[in-house]
Amino acid sequence: MRETVKILILEDLATDAELMQYELRRADLDFLAKTVETREEYLEAIQSFQPNLILADYNLPSFDGLEALAVLRQHSPDVPFIFVSGQLGEEVAIESLKQGATDYVLKNKLSRLGSAVERALLEVAERQDRQRAEEALRHSERRYRILVEQTPAVTYVAALDEKRSAIYASPQIETSLGFTPEEIRRNPDFWYRNLHPQDKQRVLEEMQDTLQFGKPFTSEYRIIGRSGREVWVRDEAVVLRDTEGNPTSLQGVMLDITPQKLAESALRDSERRFRLLFEFAPDPFYLCDLDGNLLDLNNAAREVFDINRNDFPGPNILSSGILDPIENTRFLESLSRSAAGEPTGAEEFKITRADGSQIILEISTFPIELEDERLVLGIGRDITERKQSEQIKKELLKRIVDAHEIERRRIARELHDSVNQILSSARFRLHSAAKKLPEGHQSLYNELQEGKNLLEESMREIRRISHNMRPSVLDDFGLAAAVETYCAEFRAMTNIDVRYDFAEVSKTISPEIDLGLYRIVQEAMHNVEKHSGATKVNLSLKRQSGWLTLTVQDNGKGFDLNQTEDKANRSSGLGLLHIQERAAFARGATSIESTPGKGTRVQVRIPIPQEEEK
C-alpha cells in the first residue's frame, strides 16, 4: 500500500487548483495538497511541507515557472516537477524538459493529469530503487574487497589454462610468497614455474581433472617463494561460468599452511622418537582399555606376555589366563581406579606364560585420555630374579633363625639341667657346712649364709634367662600362656602395669608364628622398659579375615621416628628393626606410630596360613 502523496500546487487561480485536485481524485490517487501563489510561500512550503511532487503553472504574475523549477532542483533534485499551463508552446515545453521538468499538461487537457502524476511517481520510485540497488552493490563490493584484502588467505582469479595465468591476486600473496600481485599478473606462467618439483606432477593432474570435468579443485602442495623458501598452501578453487554455462575462469582461495605443516612434521618426528622410546624401553609398557583389552605393547611387554607383534587386537588380560583368579580380582580393582582417574602404585602380579613358566611383574598403572577415550597405561618391571633372591635370603634367614632358636634351646637346657644342678649342689654344701660349724664362729656362719643366698639368686637369674631364651610354657601350652607368664614376670620386675588380651587367639597357630609373635612381644616390651618411661602397657592379639594383628601400646614419652641422633633412639630403632624383620619373616607388615609426649604404638599384621584358617 502506497503512502499518501504530498503534492504542492503553485497556482494563482484557485479554480484551476481545484480542478487539478478534482482530476487527481478521479484517478484514485491518495494525496494531500497544498496550494501556494508567491515565491515566498513556495520556498517556505518546500522546507516545511516537503512535497513528493509539484504541479506548477508556467506563467505567474510575480513568479516564473522555470525559476520555480530551478529553485526545486537546487533544494530537492529528485522531486518530480510537472508544468500545468493554459498555453505552452512546443519550444517552451522542450526547454522546460531540458531544465529538468518531469512532464507538462495543458489545462484544457487535465484528464491526463492523473496518469502524468502516476507516471512521474513511478519513475521516482524506480529511480530510488535503482539507486538503492546501486548503493547496495557498491557497499557489497566494498565489503567484499575489504574481506578479500584483509583475510589471511590469498584470493585469486585465474585463466583456464594448464599454467593457470593470474587475472587477479589479492595483496596477501606478497606476505605469503614475497611477490606483488602485479608481478604475478605480469608473469603468466608464475604458478606453473614456481610449483615445487616434487609436487608438480600430482598437482597438474589434479588441475587437469578440474579443467576437464569441472569438479572443484582442492590440493595441498608446496610453492617456491621469492627467497626460495618452500611455502605450503591449501588451494581450493571452482570453475566460474557465464550465463550460458560456458567456463570462463577459475576462482579460488589459497591459504598459507606452512606453520601447520611444520607443526605436523615436528609432531611426526616427536611421535617417531617417542615410539622408539616406547618400543625399546627395557621395561614392559602396555596400553589397554578399561575392560582389559590390550591395545598396544612394546617389545619388552610382548616378550613378558609372550604375545606376537601381529596378534592385535590383543588378548584380554582378564580372560586370557595370563593371571590367576586372585590376580584377576586385583587387576580388575586397578582398572576401576583408572576409570575413576586414579593412578595405582606398584603392585606385584604373577604372570603365566604360554609355556607354563611364571614371572613376577611389578606394575604401575596411569589413566590417560586418548581421542576422548579413557585408557590405561601400564608400566611394569620384571622382578622375578629379585623375588627369587629375596626368597633365597628369606630361606637363609629362616635357617639362621632356626639355628639360632635351636642354639637358644640348647643353651637354655644346659643352663637349666647342668649349670643349675652344679649351683644347686654348691648351695647344698654351703648349707651343710654352715650347720657343722661349732659355736663361737658366728662370723664365718654369716659368710656361709651370704654365699648360699648369692647362689640361690644366681639360680633364679639362670632360670629367668633360660626361660626367656626358650620358654617351655610356649612349647607346652601355646602363645597366650607364654605371653601371660612373661607379662607377669615383666610386671614384677619393672612395676609397669601390663594388660593383655589374647582371648581371640587361645590356641596355637603354628610353632613358627607363635615363636615369632612371642619374640616380637619380648622385643617391644624390652623397648618399653629401656626407653619409654611408660607406666602402663596394653597388649592385644586379634584374629580377623585371615590376619593376626598384634598391638603393643604404651603411655610413655614417645619419640620422633625421623630422629636418630641420640644413643637411646639408636637402640630403640634397632629394636624396632628386629620387630620389622620378625614380621617380614612371617610375610607380615609393621606399622609404628609415636609422638613425643604421647607414647608409642607398634602394630604387626601377619597372615594366617590357609591350612590354619580352614
What percent of residues are in strands? 15-25%
Quick one: how many beta strands?
Answer: 20
Main sheet summary: 5 strands, parallel
Intertermini distance: 102 Å
Which structural class should the secondary elements be placed in?
A: alpha+beta
The rounded Rg comes to 57 Å
Which regions have little confidence, pLDDT < 50, spanning 5+ residues? 564-571
Mean pLDDT: 82
As a percent range, the share of helical residues equals: 40-55%
Biggest sheet strand order reads 2-1-3-4-5
Number of helices: 19
Principal-axis shape: elongated
Overall description:
The chain is an alpha+beta fold. Helices cover 50% and strands 22% of the residues. The protein contains 19 helices and 20 strands. It has a five-stranded parallel β-sheet with strand order 2-1-3-4-5, sandwiched between helices. Strands 7-6-10-9-8 form a five-stranded antiparallel β-sheet, with helices on both faces. A hairpin with a 5-residue loop joins strand 9 and strand 10 (247-256). The longest helix has 53 residues, at 384-436. The radius of gyration is 57 Å and the shape is elongated. The two termini are 102 Å apart.
